[in-house]
């Protein structure tokens, strides 16, 4: 991994935005782009040794594939992905060549919509 892809200020903005949107249900927040990633938040009660590189590779590839595959479809523009796991959820949202995935405890769909809107607004403001 090369230098950090986000300044400390932007990393803090992202962490604060996600935590404000979903509160204590937020497990982790990770920013990624084509060449780098940065975990900006990890809740204290979680294991600190996750292999983020494998997550990033999958999420980046899947984000680009999904965005390209559904471009121009009758479904409209791709917005975000929710993955359901035994112990929580992973929400991935991207804007342009960067994205964020957030892991959470249980949420309702409207909570995911709010989280995604918050992240999208923040990423768009950085472009």
Number-wise, the strands total: 5
Total domain modules = 1
Output the radius of gyration: 14 Å
Shape: globular
Structural class: alpha+beta
What number is the mean pLDDT? 88
CATH superfamily: Dynein light chain 2a, cytoplasmic
Low-confidence stretches: none
Q: What series of H and E elements makes up the topology?
A: HEEHEEEH
Characterize this entry briefly:
The chain is α+β, with helices and mostly antiparallel strands and 127 residues long. It has one domain (8-126): Dynein light chain 2a, cytoplasmic (Beta-Lactamase, 2-Layer Sandwich). The protein is built from three helices and five strands, in the order αββαβββα.
Molecular structure report:
This protein has 127 residues and is an alpha+beta fold. The chain has a single domain (8-126), classed as Dynein light chain 2a, cytoplasmic (Beta-Lactamase). It contains 3 helices and 5 strands; from the N terminus they run H-E-E-H-E-E-E-H. The chain has helices at residues 8-22, 52-70, 109-126, and strands at residues 26-33, 37-42, 80-85, 88-95, 98-104. Strands 2-1-5-4-3 form a 5-stranded antiparallel sheet, with helices on both faces. The longest helix is centred in the middle third of the chain and has 19 residues, at 52-70. The relative contact order is 0.19. The mean pLDDT is 88.
């Amino acid at each position: 991994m090369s230098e950090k892809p986000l300044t400390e200020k932007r990393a803090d903005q992202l962490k604060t935005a996600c935590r404000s949107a979903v509160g204590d249900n937020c497990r982790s927040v990770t920013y990624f782009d084509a060449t780098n990633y940065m975990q900006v938040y990890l809740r204290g009660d979680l294991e600190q040794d996750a292999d983020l590189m494998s997550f990033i590779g999958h999420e980046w590839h899947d984000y680009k594939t999904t965005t390209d595959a559904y471009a121009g479809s009758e479904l409209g523009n791709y917005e975000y992905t929710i993955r359901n796991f035994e112990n929580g959820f992973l929400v991935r949202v991207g804007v342009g060549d960067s994205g964020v995935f957030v892991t959470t405890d249980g949420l309702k769909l409207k909570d995911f919509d709010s989280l995604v809107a918050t992240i999208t607004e923040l990423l768009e403001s950085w472009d």
